[in-house]
């Protein structure tokens, strides 16, 4: 039986995220996380003498958080009304933004995330928010290797199935 390293990406999304690197944004005043330098990790394979530095961009952490939140049962969508409307247009051209509704701060060893979600009716809102918080913190910790200091969840709306269906409405024009 083959064993798999915990840090090895398994899903296509995890593989894509593992390959993404970029420079981090400069530190902001009043930051919730330690931004004293870029987060980096050196991973040296047992059969290699090479060393290096991996820098993980805030956008990567935001994607990890967005993917984790979308996988929680009861989450209908991420983002506020305007962001969701823009996202619907973007989705029509097959360019889904996995970090929509997600803001993160990334430091050397810590991360904080703010998410805006829409809960599917009749899911228990507090339970969904707690599950999103746990899923996002776990994904960032496991996939990115950062200590998660805070995950804030704002429930922006409740989606009632059938509200966005136009099938039963009469047309005003013929």
Automatic annotation (TrEMBL):
Residues annotated as signal peptide: none
Q: Which InterPro entries match?
A: Asp23 (IPR005531)
Task: Give me the stretches of Polar residues compositional bias.
Answer: 1-11
Region annotation Disordered: residue ranges? 1-46
Q: Which domain of life is it from?
A: Bacteria
Q: Name one Pfam family in it.
A: Asp23
Q: Which family does it belong to?
A: Belongs to the asp23 family.
PANTHER family under this entry?
ALKALINE SHOCK PROTEIN 23, HYPOTHETICAL CYTOSOLIC PROTEIN-RELATED
Q: What is this protein called?
A: Asp23/Gls24 family envelope stress response protein
Q: Which organism is it from?
A: Microbacterium foliorum
Instruction: Specify the taxonomic lineage.
Output: Bacteria, Bacillati, Actinomycetota, Actinomycetes, Micrococcales
């Amino acid at each position: 039986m083959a064993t798999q390293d915990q840090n090895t990406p398994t899903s296509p999304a995890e593989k894509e995220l593992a390959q993404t690197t970029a420079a981090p944004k400069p530190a902001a005043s009043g930051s919730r996380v330690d931004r004293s330098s870029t987060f980096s990790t050196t991973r040296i394979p047992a059969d290699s003498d090479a060393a290096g530095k991996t820098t993980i961009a805030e956008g990567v952490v935001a994607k990890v958080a967005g993917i984790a939140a979308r996988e929680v049962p009861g989450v209908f969508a991420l983002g506020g009304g305007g962001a969701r409307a823009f996202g619907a247009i973007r989705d029509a051209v097959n360019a889904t933004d996995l970090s929509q509704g997600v803001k993160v701060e990334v430091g050397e060893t810590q991360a904080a995330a703010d998410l805006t979600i829409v809960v599917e009716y009749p899911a228990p809102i507090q339970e969904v928010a707690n599950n999103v918080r746990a899923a996002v913190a776990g994904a960032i910790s496991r996939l990115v290797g950062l200590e998660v200091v805070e995950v804030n969840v704002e429930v922006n709306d409740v989606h009632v199935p059938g509200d966005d269906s136009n099938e039963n409405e009469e047309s005003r024009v013929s």
